[in-house]
Specification:
The structure is a single chain. The protein is 38% helix and 18% strand. It is built from 27 helices and 21 strands. Helix 9 packs across helix 25, helix 10 packs antiparallel against helix 12 and helix 16 packs parallel to helix 25. 45% of the residues are buried. It comes from Micromonospora profundi. One of its GO terms (molecular function) is ATP binding.
Length: 732
């Protein structure tokens, strides 16, 4: 009898050297536990179609289909025959399989009526979808040659057939065979979930769940298995977040209470407009947090233009009033410089300490970026180190050695998703005690993401736009189908400029090769043309539809002083049109800009498009955003653009964005650099389960903060949420 397999048993002991090497190199699966937690992506069932019509060209797919007909014809360019096999999914969708060479046995095997799993890359030839030389396995009767049906797959025929995330060298049926071998001797680990939680939430045991997810005895049992394994993922994340929030509550921090008659009161008195109710309410929450002896850790989210910067500035002034310093970390020099100019304008004499026209309680506002000259840098760093600069703005240059604070009391992180964990932590480490932290984002965050990724932060939301903000109309411009619409878009831009306004033209690429700002590499695997680039588009516009207009260019590869000069010219109205990359996505505030044309709009994400269009309509004149795309009507890319054009509700668009993103990306899998075991949980579909898991986590951590009475659960959490991911979740 075979030795029992545990989660730590190497796969080479179970499936053989050659297969184990393929699983390791292609799918990063090394142990029995790795394979058992490599869950099926979906389940097929004969008689249910795969919807061949929805397959995207270039996609690696596995489809369950039935052979409809075969045809053999001689090849034109070389000797031999071409076998074409047409398969269907039962809904009218057809796919052509092509095999080159003389393979009579394959024609006999792939006879009409046979069902099989067919795996390969979708291509298109003369308007027909096809797979060239696909791997396949037939279901039902045995066959000849390479595609003979394995006993392991046979028993799935007519039942639920697991389809695994696979690789070209390791198709799904090979994975299924290996899973069967492992399951035959597998001893599941001790169930780490407390029996009380299993009972109260009606969850099946771990061993049962792991077997049923791979070899479901029924749809009902499969549902129960998936629910249990999703619970494990949600519970692990929530336990981590609740535990860290519990620990953080004990950290010491210096209270920064509000002071009557100080800078903040003077600032409020000189504000040229009235704060919205939302700004006032969030301001009270933040003020109360800053006054406590434990560090604030709050997320401030709000639509583009909702007034987050003023809320953050008021918090910074409260800290300065309490004798401390506040630092704002911005993702780009353009945004850092804009924050600097904007805050100086808002503060007036209150931000000019040491100058002739300074106010009584004034402080200094310093900008620290990598492009500062040596003399300017020395002066700025001296002001920061002495404490004269109560407010310090900058990019990651604030993190370098030599930037020392006298008393850092508050860190504000703008557009936090642009920064790595290490960068944020380095800035916090510059304080003697943990500083208060305010994280800001203009990307609306769905409730379940806030609960899961930001579960250790208090969340404040600004949903009300300040008075005076104008509506933004958005339209899709189908450039391929209706070229005249694109001509009209350029004329519309000229009309806005003629009326005294300004415009943006946004491209997905800088040009002359890919850079970190590029949305995609220049060449597409499926033969699409390269994305349009700023350096190529700007001269074409200057010589063509925008001839005679004053055009500027802005992208991340420009020297910092040149970027700042271009932005200043645009702000001053010396430029009519700014052709730019997504460097303008956040924070850029030019009230006179009323129109934006986004070229190759389908190359951008939903939330990114929403952010971009927030750059227009920031003054009294209405904004217009035109999304130019060659995506075909009915395609997923076009539907995404139509959705963006149809609503200005950032939270609705955030839900749509979540649908189209891999959950692992949201949960930090790509940031941690490790393979994730968080595979089943859907932040969109499993909101109720996540909420219940959080409630159980709070109860458990209150009773057993370090899980010392639940060692198996602590080990399970550590396996599902490794230390890198835990830090990502904590600092996110």
């Amino acid at each position: 009898m075979s030795e029992p397999a545990t989660v730590d048993t190497p796969l080479k002991k179970l499936v053989g050297d050659k297969t184990a090497k393929a699983l390791a190199s292609q799918l990063d699966l090394h142990t029995a536990g790795d394979l058992i937690y490599h869950f099926p992506r979906r389940y097929d069932e004969r008689g249910e179609h795969t919807d061949i019509r929805s397959l995207d060209v270039g996609e690696q797919v596995t489809v369950l289909a039935q052979v409809q007909r075969t045809a053999v014809r001689p090849m034109r360019q070389r000797r031999g025959n071409l076998l074409e096999v047409t398969v269907g999914d039962g809904s009218g969708g057809l796919l052509t399989l092509t095999f080159f060479g003389n393979q009579a046995w394959r024609e006999r095997e792939l006879r009409p009526g046979r069902w099989g799993l067919f795996a390969g890359k979708v291509t298109e030839f003369r308007g027909k979808r096809q797979l060239n030389g696909p791997e396949y396995v037939l279901l039902g009767e045995g066959g000849e040659g390479e595609a003979a049906v394995s006993d392991e797959i046979e028993e799935f025929a007519g039942a639920l057939i697991p389809v695994y995330p696979a690789a070209a060298a390791v198709p799904t049926w090979v994975i299924a065979r290996c899973v069967r071998v492992v399951l035959d001797t597998f001893t599941p680990p001790e169930d780490p979930l407390p029996a009380t939680v299993r009972a109260s939430r009606n969850l099946v045991g771990l061993g049962t769940a792991l077997r049923e997810i791979h070899r479901p005895s029924s749809k009902e049992e499969l549902y129960r298995a998936r629910r249990r394994l999703k619970w494990d993922e949600a519970f692990a994340v929530q336990l981590t977040l609740v535990q860290r929030k519990h620990r953080a509550a004990d950290w010491p921090a210096r209270p920064r209470p509000a002071r009557a008659g100080g800078l903040l009161d003077a600032f409020d008195a000189r504000l040229p407009y009235e704060l919205t109710a939302g700004q006032r309410d969030v301001g009270v929450e933040i003020a109360e947090d800053l006054a406590t002896p434990h560090p604030m850790h709050r997320l401030l989210q709000g639509e583009v233009g909702s007034g987050k910067t003023v809320v953050a500035l008021r918090a910074m002034l409260q800290v300065v009033d309490a004798g401390g310093q506040a630092a704002l970390l911005a993702p780009t020099e353009v945004l850092a410089a804009q924050h600097h100019r904007g805050m100086l304008d808002l503060l007036g004499p209150l931000g000019r300490a040491g100058e002739l026209d300074s106010a009584e309680h004034a402080t200094r506002v310093e900008l620290v970026t990598g492009s500062l000259g040596a003399a300017a840098r020395r002066r700025a760093l001296g002001e920061v180190a002495s404490g004269n600069a109560g407010i310090v703005l900058g990019t990651h240059a604030l993190l370098y050695e030599g930037v020392d604070f006298a008393d850092l009391g508050l860190v504000v992180v703008d557009e936090q998703h642009r920064f790595g964990v290490e960068q944020r932590d380095a800035l916090r480490a510059k304080a003697a005690q943990p500083p208060h932290v305010l994280v800001m984002t203009a990307t609306p965050i769905p409730r379940t993401v806030a609960m899961t990724v930001y579960g250790d932060l208090e969340v404040s939301t600004l949903s009300q736009l300040p008075r005076g903000r104008s509506p933004i109309a958005s339209h899709v411009v189908p450039a391929a189908e209706k070229p005249a619409f694109l001509d009209r878009a350029w004329r519309r831009l000229r009309e806005e400029v003629a009326a005294g306004h300004q415009a943006y033209v946004v491209c997905p690429r800088i040009g002359e090769g890919p850079t970190s700002e590029d949305e995609e590499p220049p060449l597409d695997d499926n033969g699409r043309r390269p994305p349009l680039a700023v350096t190529e588009v700007a001269p074409l516009l200057a010589d063509g539809p925008l001839h005679g207009l004053r055009i500027g260019v802005l992208h991340g590869r420009l020297p910092a002083d040149e970027k700042d000069a271009v932005m200043r010219s645009f702000v001053a109205g010396d430029l009519d049109v700014l052709v730019a990359t997504t460097v303008i996505e956040v924070g850029v505030d030019v009230p006179n800009a009323t129109v934006m044309i986004v070229l190759d709009a389908d190359r951008f994400g939903v939330s990114q498009l929403h952010q971009l269009r927030g750059r227009v309509g920031r003054g009294s004149a209405a904004g217009l955003c035109l999304l130019v795309s060659e995506a075909a009507e009915g395609s997923s890319a076009r539907e995404r653009l139509d959705a963006v054009a149809s609503t200005s509700d950032g939270f609705k668009l955030a839900e749509l964005d979540l649908e189209q993103r891999r959950e692992g990306d949201v949960l930090g899998a790509t940031q941690s650099g490790h393979r994730s075991h968080l595979r089943l949980l859907s932040l969109r579909r499993d909101a109720d389960l996540i909420r219940d898991a959080r409630a159980e986590a709070i109860t458990l951590i209150e009773d057993d903060p370090e899980l010392t009475r639940n060692p198996a659960l602590a080990a399970s959490v550590a396996a599902l949420v490794d230390e890198d991911r835990a830090e990502y979740l904590e600092k996110g």
